[in-house]
Amino acid sequence: MDLLEGLRCFAAVAAERSFTRGAARCGQPQPVASRRISALEQRLGATLLLRTSRRVELSPEGERLLPLAGELLARADRIDSLFTAPERSLLIAVPTGLTAAARAAIRRGLPDRTVGFVDEEPPDREELLRAGLAQLAVLPTSPQQAEFTVPLGIAHHDHAPAARFHLDQLRRPVRERDLPPRAVHLLAEDDVPTVRDPVTEACYGFGLRADQLVVGTPETEAWTRVHERGDVLLASAEQARREDLAWSPLARPVVRRSYRLAGSADLDDHDQVDLITRLATGLGGGRGRTP
């Protein structure tokens, strides 16, 4: 159990990149979460998190451990609920960006359920649902079928951002031509046709180089490159705020994450609507389909 609790705290802090928010996410006081992660590092003989005065980053060892930790925790949660009455247990597979406040609100809204969350990329969320390891999963869908959407824009370092970000801003001026090209990164969460394809087409239309669009960069590495190299990242405004970055909507194209809540949990209509609303709010979006 010490291993599982350590992994749970590690996964929460890794997702939030903050000990304070990570501890809240896993429902532990911050000193307890810190001690459990330190014990986990001692047990494994590796430094998993790189701590600075303002940020927490994954070490290379932490990057290797994180997907295995998520898989093990999902199975452990499933075992915990194996002999619980089905109507009392609910495991939801969610995107990594769901806020701790939204998780708490979802649990408060379903007081007769034991609600757990597992954070995974889209293909893994679908697999957890298919394997019966999660009862519900937030999955990408077409804008026309979306139950909620999340507006996307550009997270960047410009402290006096324009009203909208134009992709041709990634071209370096002549005086910076010797520097590496600035890239726009798309996370695995956005490696879906409704987001990837229009962004790819726009990058080519603005004359950007092929290596200036990077799809599927690991999330921690993508944020690091924004801070380190001046790259930009397609993200929600909430994600940019967490990273202390500016955020601007794209001038062209206008893109959103489109989601549906898949699976069955025998919720009544009121609880279903409330759950979707809280998921939408916690991911930085809102209810309804896009035109």
What is the helix content?
40-55%
Q: Average the pLDDT over all residues and give the rounded result.
A: 88
With strands numbered from the N-terminus, the spatial order across the biggest sheet is 4-3-5-12-6-13
Separation, N- and C-terminal Cα atoms = 48 Å
- Tell me the structural class: alpha/beta
Strand content: 15-25%
Q: How many strands in all?
A: 13
CATH architecture of the largest domain: 3-Layer(aba) Sandwich
CATH topological fold name of the largest domain? D-Maltodextrin-Binding Protein, domain 2
Low-pLDDT stretches are none
Per CATH, the class of the largest domain reads: Alpha Beta
* Number of structurally distinct domains: 3
Helices, by number, come to 10
What spatial form do the alpha-carbon principal axes imply? globular
- Based on CA atoms alone, the radius of gyration comes out at 20 Å
Assembly classification = single chain
> What is the N-to-C succession of helices and strands?
HHHEEHEHEHEEEEHEHEHEEHE
Largest sheet: 6 strands, mixed
InterPro entries: LysR_HTH_N, WH-like_DNA-bd_sf, WH_DNA-bd_sf
Keywords: DNA-binding, Transcription, Transcription regulation
GO molecular function, one term: DNA-binding transcription factor activity
Protein name: DNA-binding transcriptional LysR family regulator
Could you characterize what this model shows?
There is one protein chain. The protein has about 290 residues and is of the alpha/beta class. The protein has three domains: about 1-75, Orthogonal Bundle (Arc Repressor Mutant, subunit A); about 80-140 and about 260-290, 3-Layer(aba) Sandwich (D-Maltodextrin-Binding Protein, domain 2); about 155-255, D-Maltodextrin-Binding Protein, domain 2 (3-Layer(aba) Sandwich), CATH 3.40.190. About 40% of the residues lie in helices and about 20% in strands. It contains ten helices and 13 strands. The chain has helices at about 1-15, 20-25, 30-45, 60-80, 100-110, 120-130, 195-205, 220-230, 235-240, 270-280, and strands at about 50, 55-60, 90-95, 115-120, 135-140, 150, 155, 185, 215, 230-235, 245-250, 255-265, 285. Helix 7 links the parallel strand 8 (about 185) and strand 9. Helix 1 packs across helix 2 (about 20-25) and helix 2 (about 20-25) packs across helix 3. The chain starts with a helix and ends with a strand. This is DNA-binding transcriptional LysR family regulator. One of its GO terms (molecular function) is DNA binding. Pfam families: HTH_1.
